[in-house]
Amino acid sequence: MTQSIGRRAVPIVLVVSACVMMAAYYAVTATGEPEVITNPNWALQRHANENNVPVGKLIHMLSHDYADARQWPVTGVHVADLPAGEAGVREALEHLAEESSVDWYTLAVFPLFGVACVIGLLALHSRRDFSRWRWALLAAGVLVFGLWFGGQTNPMESFVKAIKYLAGLEGQPVDRALTLLAFTLLAIAGNKLICGWGCPLGSLQDVIHRFSPAKKWKPPFWLTNALRVLLFGLVLCFLFGWIFGIDKLVLYHYANLFKVFNWTIAFPWWVLIFAFLLCLFWYRPYCHLICPFGLWSWVAEHFSLARVRVSTDLCVRCQKCVRECPSRAADARINSDGRAVGLPDCFACGACVEVCPTKAVIFDMPRDGYVSSLPPKQ
């Protein structure tokens, strides 16, 4: 029993540490919404300096309403002489100030998110009342972390803001680095814990898929991952101006479905409807194709402490887990060539753990006789 508790303790400590780290940092920096300062005779650069935001971020915000904002001079021209005028610049700065402000209500989401991840970890580990916990946490992901807190536990945003900082579109480097580090620690503590058990958008896709009567489709991982990597490459090209002569353009802004939780989507509603219709027959299409944190956590998955493991002695290759798995993850772990690198995303849904008749599939720390994927059948 002591050994079992010890196996659980390390990832739980990482989960709690990550959430405490985020909550503590935001508590220290929770100063309310800062005052916005503008002057019609200042240039854009001085407005950015006086309000403590990168000028690139200010221009990026203005470009949402003014398509040619990236061509505006940042020095030597008064904002009163720009198409936005002082009023437009003030509106952009107020929006940026609202984004960066932190209140005590927002802080409550971090400990709650940590509790959800720990419950998911324990449910996966123990197998007891597994389905009940899974449905409860999926509902919490949608209703609490999504609709109530407005998608504050947004792993995609943590990654995107980190790379935007490198392009000069974000300030507060400690904030960006710390948030991404905290979410990465969650991914290392337990494979895809954040995506499978807490992410509001992931939970919403999961619920739609599980309730759908449509015939399910499992596209090959090499294809979906190649498209996800290609999109990430294009994002970097447009962000840093490597090709096409375009820079400071964040493609992910035009495909950020997390915004549905605070009603600020930047694309037509039919795109949103189409995206969720895909979930009827395809498990988590947004995670597999678009989400950059999904790609990042797939890399982190190779270092996760608690994850799906298969017993070389107990597994009889009955294929029940392969049939129940909503993606290609179980198939690669049961019927592959024994490799441990480059396996398809496993979203820690636990279906394989739940249906295994011989208890050969576990979600746990490393154990003797358990491997990431079975070697070829002799």
Task: Please explain how this structure is put together.
- Helix 6 (109-126) packs antiparallel against helix 7 (130-148) and helix 7 packs across helix 11.
- The chain has 18 helices and three strands.
- The chain has helices spanning 2-28, 44-50, 55-62, 85-100, 104-107, 109-126, 130-148, 155-166, 173-189, 193-197, 200-211, 221-240, 269-278, 285-289, 292-300, 320-324, 329-335, 351-355, and strands spanning 307-311, 361-364, 370-371.
- It has three domains: 44-101; 110-298, no CATH class; 307-371, Alpha-Beta Plaits, CATH 3.30.70.
Shape: elongated
How many domain regions?
3
Structural class by helix and strand composition: mainly alpha
User: Strands of the largest sheet, in order across it?
Assistant: 2-1-3
Proportion of helical residues? 40-55%
Biggest beta sheet summary = 3 strands, antiparallel
> Alpha-carbon distance between the termini?
35 Å
- The amount of beta strand, in percent, is under 5%
- H/E order of the elements? HHHHHHHHHHHHHHHEHHHEE
Q: pLDDT under 50 segments (min length 5)? A: 1-5
Q: Compute the CA-based radius of gyration.
A: 23 Å
Q: What does the average pLDDT come to?
A: 84
Number of strands: 3
